[in-house]
Every structure is written in C-alpha cells, then in structure tokens.
Amino acid sequence: MALRSPLLLLATVTTALAEPPTSLDKLPPSEGLPDLLTFNDGSRVEDPEAWKRRREELKEPVLFYQYGRMPPRPDKVTAKVDREKEHRSGLGTETWLTLTIDSKKKLPMRIVVYKPKTAGPHPVIIEEEGNIGGSKNAGMFMKKTYLFIEYARNDLAPDRRNSTGPAQRAYPEYDWAMLAVWAWAGMRVVDYLETRDDVDMKRIGITGHSRGGKAALLAGAFDERITLVAPAQSGAGGAGCSRILGPGAESIGMNDKPDWYHERIQIFAENEAHLPFDQHFLKALVAPRGLFCNESTDDLFANPVGTHATSLAAMPVFEMHGKKGNNGLRYRRGGHSYSGDDWRALLDFAEWTFYGRGKPIWQEPAPVEPKRHAREFGFVRIGDPGNDGHTNYPRVGSHGAVDYGFEIGRNKVSNEEYAKFLNAVEKTEILGLYHPRMKIRRLGNEGSYTYEVEDKWSAKAAVTYLSLFDAMRYCNWRHGGDTESGVYQFRGLATVGARKPDAKFWLPTEDEWVKAAYYQPKTKNYRSIKPPPIQAISTEILRSGPPPGKSRYGMLGAADPIWEWTESKAGELFRGLRSDSWFQGNNHQAKGRFYSNPELELGHIGFRICRAVETTDDPQ
User: Fold this and answer.
1) How far apart are CA 531 and CA 315, in angstroms?
2) DSSP codes joined into one string, 266-326
3) Banded model confidence at residue 205, pLDDT cuts 50, 70, 90
4) Where are the domains of the chain?
5) Which of 81, 182, 184, 544 is placed for a possible disulfide with 153 were both Cys, Cβ 3.0 to 4.6 Å?
6) Does the pLDDT at position 2 exceed 50?
7) In 175-238, which ranges are E strands?
8) pLDDT category, 255, cuts 50, 70, 90?
9) CB under 8 Å, gap of 24 or more: what pairs does 446-451 form?
10) How would residue 548 be classed by pLDDT, with cut points 50, 70 and 90?
11) Do the Cβ atoms of 271 and 24 come closer than 8 Å?
12) What fold, for 57-355?
C-alpha cells in the first residue's frame, strides 16, 4: 500500500552544520529552566508565527545530547495481515499485522489493530508496548469508536544492554539510541495509518507507560501528525525534569539504562546546571497539540515534582496559541503502573482534545505527608574514626568514610524543637522559615508572631516543609543564636558558604549520615540492604508502616519515608538527600544517590543535625 504523502515530517540536521559543544567550559551554567520564548540570539518570541522558528531551535539540543539523531521518514511502509479474530469485548476485531518499513531496508515490526464494528473514519490511540495482543484497554476505546493500536517496540530495538537492534543496523549513519528508535517506530505506525481509508488523521493519539511514555513523548514532539501525546509516569528522559528533582527522583547520574540514551547525556550527570535544554522542550514541541501527562504523586522515581515544573514551564507556549486547555496534567495516589483509572482519564482527555467534550484536566500534585512517628530527643555518639567507606557502586560512589568522631541526632528535628527556633527568630516573615502546612500554628501578627505545636502527638514528630536553607539557619541558631552566621555564612536568602571548622551543630554530610545509619563497628563493614517482604512494600507512601529498629550506633527513624537534608553538594543545583525507606515498591534509597533542589519545601523532607563531640552545652 502506498503512502498518501511524501512529506518529510522529521527535520534532520545535516553534517555540514557545526555540532553543539560537548565541553562544559563552552556550556555555561544557569539557574532555572531555559526560556522557551527566547531565541538563541536573545530576541523574544512574540507570536505563533515566530514560534515556528523557535521550535526548530529546540530540536537540535534534545536529539544531540539525549536521544541521538533519527533517520528521516522512509519511502514506504506496507502491511501484511497475519491473523484476525473477534476481540473478547465483542465490540470489534483484533488484527495482527506485520509492517515492512522502507522498501530497501525492509524492517519488520508487528502491530495489533483493535477495530470497532462501527463505521469510520475512526480516531486512533497508539500504544507503545513491549508485549502486544490481548489488550484489556482496547474495549473502552472501541466503545467510543476509536481504533486502538499496539506496536512492538522491541522488534526494532530489543531492550537489552549493549545491544544494537535491527533499526540501528539498518541506519548505521545515525547515532540514535533505543528511545529514539522506539519513538521512530511509533511514527511509522502513523505512516501506516495514512494508507487506510477508515482513519481520521486529524485525531491521532500516542501513549505509553514508563519507558514507553518516554518514547511516546519523543514521537509526539517530532511528528506533528500526532495530535494527542500522552506519556504516563515517564520520569527522567520523559515528562520529568533534569534540573528540578523531588526526593527519590531519578537523575541523569542515576540512570541505569545507558542504551536508552545517547552517551553524551552523561556529560551532565551532577552538572545539570550546564544542560542547555530540559524536558519542557519536548512538551513545548508538542504545543499547541494535545499533551496529557498521567502521573502519581507517590511515584517518586518518576519525579512528580519535576513533571509539574516542566508542564508549567511549557504552558506559555500553549497560551500563546490560545490552547491552554490542551496542556493536561493529572495526579493520582499509588505506585508505578498504568491503571484502569489512568486509561479512563486518557480517554476523557482524548474526547476533550479531539471533540471538545468534557473539560480540560490540570491538577497540582497532592501533598505527600507520611505518617510521622513521635521519638525522643537527644544525640548518639558516632566513633570509630578512620573507617572505610561503603562499596563504590557505579553511579553512586562510596560513602560512609569519616576520620573523626561526632554525634548525630537520635531522631530528626521535631516540631517542638523547630517551634522553639521560630519563636526565637521568626517574629516576621523576612526569612520565610515557617510553612503553613507544618504541624505548627502561627499566632499573632507580623512583627510579633508566636508559634505552637498543633497537638501533643505532633510535638516529637519530625518537622517537614522546610528547605535546606531553613535547616542550615536552624544549625546556626543552635550554634550561637544567630540565623545568618556561626556555622554557615549566608549572603542573602539562599547563598551560603561551606561549614566552618569550629561548628558545634551542623547538617550531616552524606558520609556522616551513611556511617551513622549503616556502619557496623564490630565487623567493620556495612549493614546489608535487604528488601522487606513483598507484602510489606506499600504502593502508597501514606500507608507506610512503623519503621524498623535502630542503627548500631542507636540512630532512629532512618527508615521513615521522610527524607533528610544533608549539606553535601551534588553539582551546582542540588544537595544530597538520605533515607533508608523503600519507595515506589521496588526502589531503595540506600542503593542509590539521590538529591534535590535546596529550596524545595515538601511534606516528606525533614532533617536531623550533628553535634561536635566536645559540645557539652547547648545555648538553645
């Protein structure tokens, strides 16, 4: 079957053009997300016509640094029916086909088409899948007269380490990695749709979950025939963010699937400030077409905080085109899965995008506030100076080596302790040390504020909703009564120097925290990290049970699902976070290195402090 149009939909860059720089010296660091509405020459994008030129500028860094460059559209895509049967829903047929891509390369790729019994032309939802056939979700779409199509991504690039797939062998002159291959495969499904006479080509959607969501977003960003792009819990390299990381979020450095991305992206591991793009570029490339990000607040690894940031950053492009409602974002509670509710939400958004039925969907992530366990105050002594660090894991490094003795808080700083701090220093809102979602009430008026813990139970529970800078100012106050100096010298609200050597109280480094939590002085090694029974791993943070015991030194509360600030830097944008908690059902914080933006104030970030061994008096 011949293609309807020879239009080349994928813009490619010729080798005659100079390649972007790969030296950090030539990629100056910057704060915040790169501005979508500023051209590379510094001029502003003023209207949709100018946006077309700016859109072309966004493509090159995305492909060059992260995914690799893809081949153009092939000359032909043909289809052969392999078998057909009635779908179990009774609403239509399930047809297995093999596409042959490119008349010379002859790349085979399997797809399954679920066609309703109703007459066309049909809107279409394409799902990027690892295993095709027998879809449980096709029925709800056929009921609404949609064609539902699955394609087998692994046919063109098997998801195996250090492998070169059929598509990469067929086009060796292109440096595309797996995600780019899978996205390109989705575009070839659209080529096939153009050969059918029962398809509404103005209403084509593509979706996928996790790695499939990354590929779906990339496909939709670069193929303007796709009118709805719906990544689900796609995280890093998808709808997430590299410059804004919530607790437990996958970072560039923590990526353990190197074949998905071009190796150049690793230049920016813990150097994210130098990154000349972020995932809002992909979302802006979709605009003003429909974009729907299906997320879970509890899916920390997929970075729900960063996904919100990139969707928000892309909004001005949708607004410029008068299509604010086409930028959709939805959050639920629960784990890393494409649930039935997620699929129904996608169908609702498709109806809105394609037909104007229903209403737009835009949700803020729900506050994550794990149950907080009341604990006693005090410090525990961490001795055994000169110990070795933990195993030097790839992408994580070795932590835990400390060559001096110190003390660390038996538990996290509590609401009661933090309320004393606020009463001493926060009579006004100048420093912003208080957050209204803390379990602390603020009373009185500006200039004479006072603070009290909400209830007796909350007094000894961990305080949360504070930034790294709030925690550092607390240490300064404990050291000598001043918030702006003593341990950490502040210059302005958020510029801070290194810890002073004579500090009496301070935030732990990652080494200090890891030693206090895991080191076993008798055997001179580190506690092994074993998963709890599968039935004990919650898919929802709020349901987390009581934490297990204490470390060998007596430190408590490390396994609470409340993460803890450390003073350790991770590049120019982040500070390390530590926790011994399980999250997302299959990720353990201690097995990775996680970090977040120091200005974040969230319900699942708290802190504990260290104290010098010789400190016998506490001025506070």
Assistant:
1) 40
2) GGGTT-GGG-S--THHHHHHHTTSEEEEEEETT-GGG-HHHHHHHHHHHHHHHHHTT-GGG
3) very high
4) 57-355, 379-611
5) 182
6) no
7) 199-209, 228-232
8) confident
9) 449/422, 450/423, 451/419, 451/422, 451/423, 451/426
10) low
11) yes
12) Rossmann fold (3.40.50)
How many helices (H) and strands (E) the chain has is answered by: 11, 23
Q: Which residue reads 């700083």 in tokens?
A: 413
Full strand arrangement of the beta sheet holding 290-296: 77-86, 92-101, 107-116, 147-152, 122-129, 199-209, 228-232, 290-296, 327-332
In whole angstroms, what is the distance from residue 450 CA to residue 546 CA? 32
Residue 99's nearest CA partner among 196, 204, 206, 165 is 196
CB 246 within 8 A of CB 600: yes
Confidence (pLDDT) at 15: 37
* Gap between the Cα atoms of 305 and 596, Å rounded: 10
**What tokens appear for 236 in the block?**
């890093």
Residue 460 CA to residue 404 CA, distance in Å, equals: 29
For residue 399, give Cα distances in angstroms to 266, 562, 581: 21, 20, 17
Q: Strand pairing of 327-332 and 379-382?
A: unpaired
- The confidence score (pLDDT) of residue 14 equals 34
Query: Of the candidates 558, 541, 537, which has an alpha carbon nearest to the alpha carbon of residue 549?
Result: 558
Q: Which residue from 188, 171, 137, 179 is spatially nearest to 154, judged by alpha carbons? A: 179
**pLDDT-based confidence at 540, cuts 50/70/90?**
very low
Mean pLDDT, the chain, integer: 91
Q: What are the structure tokens assigned to 602, written together? A: 């969230």
CB 576 within 8 A of CB 594: yes
Map residue 554 onto helix, strand or coil: coil
How many residues comprise the chain?
A: 620
d(CA 395, CA 13): 32
Model confidence pLDDT, tens digit, residues 134-154? 899 999 999 999 999 999 999
CATH number for the domain whose boundaries are 379-611: 3.90.1580.10
C-alpha 106 chain-centroid distance: 37
Joined tokens for residue 345: 């939400």
Alpha helices in 356-509 (DSSP H): 415-425, 468-480
Quote the CA–CA distance of 112 and 149 in Å, as a whole number: 6
The pLDDT tens digits for 344-357 are: 999 999 999 999 99
- Spatial separation of the C-alpha atoms in residues 131 and 212, rounded to whole Å: 11
* Residue 324: Cβ within 10 Å count: 14
Asked whether 414 and 460 are in contact (CB, 8 A), the reply is: yes
d(CA 514, CA 285): 42
User: Could you tell me how far CA 155 lies from the centroid of its own chain?
Assistant: 27
Q: At 178, phi and psi to the nearest 5?
A: -60, -45
Gyration radius of the chain over CA positions: 26
Strands (E), 48-198: 77-86, 92-101, 107-116, 122-129, 147-152
Inter-residue contact 129 to 185 (CB < 8 Å):
no
The three-state secondary structure class of 184 is helix
% helix / strand / coil in the chain, to the nearest 5? 25, 20, 50
- Is the preceding omega at residue 288 within 30 degrees of 0, hence cis? yes
